[in-house]
């Protein structure tokens, strides 16, 4: 089915042609028509399947069908998104769709000064794309009023819930017009997402363009088992052997990202990081350099799992598995987009095995395991045996020296507490049996005219 069959405004059709759009994706075919009719929707679809056009085109068309004058500080449409990167990406895409129509688009997000954003709002904007936190800041300062908002889109709604934005989202929804259309889009679903949909959607329609929480068929998954301490070494070896050029690497923490960056720079590998401690300008430059090929490696935390749209990205590497299995779907959704082939590589330590099981259960498939020679992971049993060998080797502590002496020196007594001889040993070889240890006594010991009660070493000495 082609976009030309939708009977859109000529200006929108022209823009779609300019963007290279011709055939619709499954999510676009299912969502655009009911959304254009004003229906509330809850849509679940994989990342990279065209969700942005699925909600942006019907909203733009409805705004053209019912034109209104631009009013200062009062937008008509609102798109909420969890991250700055995704807000920027959406603004670029939707501005391209609206390039030939009289609809203004702007993005609001943190990490940059508010003055420029406030000036745009004051001049009047039709469609605002924003993160919840930055929008609330502008509302508090009186820079924007949501009472005229007729169209609301929650993009990556599940991620907003994961990041703790549910209270902010509910507060913002209450500020919008009573009669509004609400569209909720995400790549994964959960009970929390369903609960939110029932609270903010009105008589909505559910659309599942793909299997719930599934990944694209064009992505090949693989797991390398490796000790946590050797992940950097394994990554550098694979880079050299497989000649990977453009690789997006996800870590679980900012500290892990910085450590990996330092390790790569030692080997003069061009890389950069993108996480919450970096300024918006620094993150924007890193992403731009990665897209243009100036950087071989871009290391990111979850902040970049949503919003990165890089054409032809072949490899996504999970340096650490995400805490939430759903985040695995979003991370690897950066590759294999728009029908292209991609590779999702994960480094899994022994401590991450349970997380891997949860991910496999979520996506409904077992991921291929690869053991790189020289990077084998020892099992818990072999680890305990290794520890035992170290203990028995006599290098660990004084107690081990006692064990070695007792096992290897015949009747040689260790320096520690003497071992009580077994009855069978005494009866079988009386010549080599050790003398029975004398019991301590508290009875007075005769040493002369006086009787004294002796204890400890002196008691032993005198008792002999």
CATH H-level superfamily of the largest domain? P-loop containing nucleotide triphosphate hydrolases
Spatial gap, N to C terminus: 105 Å
CATH class of the largest domain: Alpha Beta
Gyration radius, rounded: 34 Å
Low-confidence stretches: 381-451, 457-464
Helical content stands at 40-55%
Mean pLDDT comes to: 81
CATH architecture of the largest domain: 3-Layer(aba) Sandwich
Q: Which percent range describes the beta-strand content? A: 5-15%
Lateral strand order in the biggest sheet? 3-4-2-5-6-1-7
Classify the secondary structure makeup into a structural class: alpha/beta
Count the E strands: 16
**Total domains:** 3
What CATH calls the topology of the largest domain is: Rossmann fold
**The biggest beta sheet, please?**
7 strands, parallel
What is the overall number of helices? Answer: 18
Query: Can you tell me the overall shape?
Result: globular
What does this structure look like?
The structure is a single chain. With 464 residues, this protein is an alpha/beta fold. It has three domains: 206 residues, 3-Layer(aba) Sandwich (Rossmann fold), CATH 3.40.50.300; 159 residues, Rossmann fold (3-Layer(aba) Sandwich); 35 residues, no CATH class. The chain is built from 18 helices and 16 strands. The strands form three sheets. Strands 3-4-2-5-6-1-7 form a seven-stranded parallel beta sheet, with helices on both faces. It has a seven-stranded parallel beta sheet with strand order 10-11-9-12-13-8-14, with helices on both faces. Helix 5 links the parallel strand 3 and strand 4. It is globular and about 65 Å long. The C terminus is likely disordered.
